[in-house]
Amino acid sequence: MLRKYSNHRTLGDNLKLGGLTAFSAGMVNVASVTVFFAFTSNVTGYYAVFAQELSKGNWYQGAVVLLWILLFFIGSFLSNFVIIQGKGRWSQYISHAIPVMLEFLSILFVGIYLDFFYKNTLQETEFLVAALLFAMGLQNGLTASISNSVVKTTHLTGLTTDLAILVSMFSKRENRENKALVDKFHLLLTIMIAYVLGGLFAGLGYLYLQNGTFYLTCAILLIIALYDFYKLTRVKQLFIKRRRETCPA
Amino acid sequence: MSRDVLIKINYVFVALLLIGASLTVMYHENPERLIQGEWVEKDWRLEKANATPASASTSELQERLKREILQNIEDLHLGVWRFYKDGTLESAEAGQGNGLEWVIKGRGHVLEVRKDGKTVESFQIQQISKDKLVLHLNFDLQVKGIIEIVLERKGQIDQYAKKV
User: Which residues span the membrane (chain B) (predicted)?
Assistant: First the structure.
């Protein structure tokens, strides 16, 4: 899921990464709206809200929205920064797992803060939403960066456009038989469904788990980060075992 | 200008924006501080989604709807709203101990009123200044629409009364 880069990635890698990250993004978004009345994957909308608040002379609200947009920007920046700066310094898997772990820590921080420190003040709300937008920026930056912009999981505007274009392209027989297009369609559809399912899961889960929804998202992120670690360790073990068998001395 | 310089300017610009936005969020007058105090209800306007305010306010249906809606949110027809710093909300009539609490959420655009820890109603803060507070309440009973509640700060009204 994480250890391969760009064109070396298979459809299976992208489906797993896209599905799981979109599921977690859907969960975070719905949980955030429920708890804070603020979306965490609505950057397009926030640009419009920013302009609207400024035009009304609401400086405070404008600054809040600007802070959220900037935190998303910094999250995406940091994700790609770690990936490109990590090249040659440490393994590709580590470079790709760091943004996921940072996202994990951001969401875990929000969950713990809500459980033990939250006093329902507006300032706390603004900074916790900012932490979630930072997490979403990290995730979108990572998935877009390692998949050559094929996988984007926190914003569905572009995805819906791409999906619509593909569906219209399938009105021609030759496109319906084009494997690359069909694969792309499956990937986009998986992301869209996973995002909605994540949102549904968080919406229903919040009724029973409340802030535990954030911990559940963290668990999904851990699966994403550790899946390849498990695979790499398993391959290493098999390699050592086989080497011992072939060269017993 | 070389690209090396441009990218450095870019980094500095983002850092300045971040610092500026953070400082504004921390120290600028925010809706949570502005709302504290006593507010007097000046107007309850009912606006249906598919009607102009003028035609809506005169219709008979409008009056019936208004009665029905007000019945549903009787607790919130407070007359005088007192927002305390500790998050309690009281009305002049009910006085202390009505169990209402207030919280502001989102980017400072949602006022949530709670009773015994459960949300009673969420209002959109349409406008908030030192003297005026306009709240919108979405309803969806027989028709979709908005109730607009206009409040004015108590001190302002007293000063006006004194002047008169």
Answer: 6-27
Question: What mean pLDDT do residues A84-97 have?
Answer: 89
Q: What is the pLDDT of residue B141?
A: 57
Query: Is residue A248 situated within a structural domain?
Result: no
Residue B5, CB half-sphere, CA atoms under 13 Å: how many? Answer: 2
- Domain with A220, as residue range(s), is 6-243
Q: How far apart are the first and last CA of chain B?
A: 65
Same domain, B23 and B39: no
Q: How many CB pairs lie under 8 A apart between chains A and B? A: 68
**pLDDT recorded at residue B47:** 72
The reply to whether B162 touches chain A by the CB within 8 Å rule is no
Q: What are phi and psi of B83, to 5 degrees?
A: -95, 115
A127 interaction partners in chain B (CB closer than 8 Å) = 25
Mean pLDDT of A199-220: 94
Q: Which residues of B touch A126 (CB under 8 A)?
A: 25, 107
Which residues, at least 6 apart from A83, have a Cβ–Cβ distance to it below 8 Å?
A95, A96, A99, A142, A145, A146
Cβ-based neighbours of A109, under 8 Å, separated by 6 or more: A131
Please give the pLDDT value at position B68: 67
Strands B132-140 and B88-91: unpaired
| In the predicted structure, residue A5 carries a pLDDT above the cut 80 | no
Q: Tokens for A43, please give them.
A: 């950057």
pLDDT range class, residue B96, cuts 50, 70, 90? low
> Do both B8 and B71 map to the same domain?
no
Residue B63 — very low, low, confident or very high, per pLDDT cuts 50/70/90? low
How many domains is chain B built from?
2
Instruction: Looking at the structure, tell me whether residues B152 and B79 fall in a common domain.
Output: yes
Distance in angstroms (rounded) separating the CA atoms of residues A39 and A47: 13
pLDDT (mean) for B87-110: 81
Gap between the Cα atoms of B75 and B115, Å rounded: 10
Rounded Cα–Cα distance for residues A215 and A116 (Å): 14
The reported pTM is 0.87
Total length of chain B: 164
Main-chain dihedrals φ then ψ at residue A147, nearest 5 degrees:
-105, 15
Residue A150, pLDDT score: 81
